[in-house]
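re: the backbone from monday

yeah here it is again, tokenized this time
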């Protein structure tokens, strides 16, 4: 068990459907990471922006962005994650990928597809929740619109939830409040990573990436709308101590989720 994790959130603009440009920009940002980072988190569809042109930008699990993610994790000796448009068995998925030691160690397909952008007509939904074990921490990945569905996110034993997103400026107040709510109700750390800039449809994004404590306090939010890394250190001992002093989880309701 590593008692503390240093997390870096990548808040960046994304060039519309230009994987080469986005990977180049993020690679430069990765070269400027502070020392001691354990986990770097990239936005949703970090190599293309939030596009429904899946047939044009999708790749397989052997594609360029996937291999880039693996190689960066190996070269930098960190865990690196974010979502990519993946084609598998004739279907498209908005897939969260977790790379570590030069390998894809875990993947999660976005469950809740954003119907207001017709994502549900383009992509197939994920069918299972995923938990990742990283240096003794239990991590639960989610993607953007999943944030609005607390039942899907409900857990009594995750230490860290991750939400990667392209969450528009028009609804950024909801982004802030929902990240805080997920942290408080699940008594865990929550890291939310959102892009900045304008996408190919003229939709603006203002970031507001942050990590929240189990008490709902924002950590490392000083960058707000600017480009760069947002750092925070999270403590497993502090998390367990708070849960022991205020054991809300012991009174949680028991339920099952029907897919």
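seq for it, each position gets an aa:
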């Amino acid at each position: 068990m590593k008692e503390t994790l240093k997390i870096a959130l990548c808040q960046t603009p994304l060039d519309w459907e230009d994987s080469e440009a986005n990977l180049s920009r993020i690679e430069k940002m990765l070269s400027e990471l502070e020392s001691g980072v354990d986990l770097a988190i990239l936005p949703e569809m970090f190599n293309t922006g939030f596009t429904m042109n899946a047939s044009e930008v999708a790749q397989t699990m052997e594609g360029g962005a996937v291999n880039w993610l693996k190689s960066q994790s190996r070269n930098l000796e960190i865990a690196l994650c974010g979502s990519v448009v993946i084609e598998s068995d004739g279907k498209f998925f908005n897939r969260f990928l977790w790379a570590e030691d030069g390998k894809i160690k875990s993947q999660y397909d976005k469950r809740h597809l954003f119907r207001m952008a017709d994502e549900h007509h383009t992509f197939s939904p994920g069918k299972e929740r995923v938990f990742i074990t990283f240096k003794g921490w239990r991590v639960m990945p989610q993607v953007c619109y999943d944030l609005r569905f607390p039942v899907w996110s409900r857990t009594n034993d995750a230490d860290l939830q991750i939400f990667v997103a392209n969450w528009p400026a028009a609804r950024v107040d909801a982004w802030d409040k929902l990240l805080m709510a997920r942290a408080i109700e699940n008594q865990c750390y929550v890291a939310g990573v959102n892009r900045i800039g304008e996408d190919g449809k003229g939709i603006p994004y203002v970031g507001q990436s942050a990590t929240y404590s189990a008490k709902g306090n924002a950590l490392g939010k000083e960058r707000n709308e600017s480009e760069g890394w947002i750092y925070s250190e999270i403590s497993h001992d502090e998390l367990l101590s708070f849960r022991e002093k205020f054991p809300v989880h012991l009174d949680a309701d028991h339920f099952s989720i029907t897919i």
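Residues 172-186 form the longest helix (15 residues). The chain has a mean pLDDT of 97.
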